[in-house]
């Protein structure tokens, strides 16, 4: 009765048990004792450096208390001492790279034909399996940044580090070149500009049992000595040469930490983030540092600061690289060759466009005729605008909305709107 009821409710499970029984019998092809000790289970094929690996084997059969032993196992892997010997089954565990002699990367790779042997003193059962140890890979991910904006950190199912406060603005001082009409450098100017915090997501594939600290660095192809043909530095045709177009200037367009910024704090603002350290580069800007993921954390946020300048710029690109594991065990990419992700900064300067009074984008005008057009400036203007003219080779001119407006009105008969 009980069995009938059970079979109606759990026909699938009963089938599975039967299948396991027949598999177990098939595996031990010699003269069979039905009470042969048998191990159940298939341990995971992959293990990761610095990450706990554990598996609980089931067992049945045998006439007495079962004893277990591992053969051909990697040194990091061991059977757990069972205090309750009457229990059937056994747990094997270990941390590749750490347990069994802290062999680090020497534990990488595949071990084939590991055997878990169980015996009741008279008969033995065996369960062969393989384990392949891989790097616990760290990777980077970032959305495009927009000058003047701080993004939200999206929700995550992963174990997160303390979320950084991105709202608080920072401040950064830069020195820019001033140019004569021929593009030669006439002097420099110190500008102190607000910054907005952005972030790059740092993920660890698996939860590490130890703290993992990794060095990072901002990189850009921008090179002030890469001039247009016929020019030599310092010159505007070097600072803003064709080959530098679209490359962010580290320390000017973006930094890890602004020169006058306070260290990033947690979301409540109560304490400084303890997982990020910034370091100075050769130019004296904080464009590198170390990020530390505590044990178990698999997702963290590396705060950077985009300088909110008032230069009209194309979309600028740069890169963030993870360069070195300073402590713990993590792979920088699947082959541990390094991790690099592309970053981009979209400009937020107003864009000036001309249209007819009726909003048309095209018009025809007889020579000598006069007509009123609308110059439309996109974006908000709550301060002076540094207007750079249409071609990137000409110097940025400093002006402000009122003088721009009156200039345009008197000289061209245009009306400014916003
Ligand atoms: Ca910029
Ligand atoms: Ca801006
Ligand atoms: Ca800008």
UniProtKB/TrEMBL annotation:
Composition bias, Polar residues: 388-407
Xref: InterPro entries: CalX-like_sf
Species of provenance: Marinobacter adhaerens (strain DSM 23420 / HP15)
Region (Disordered): 384-418
Listed name of the protein: Uncharacterized protein
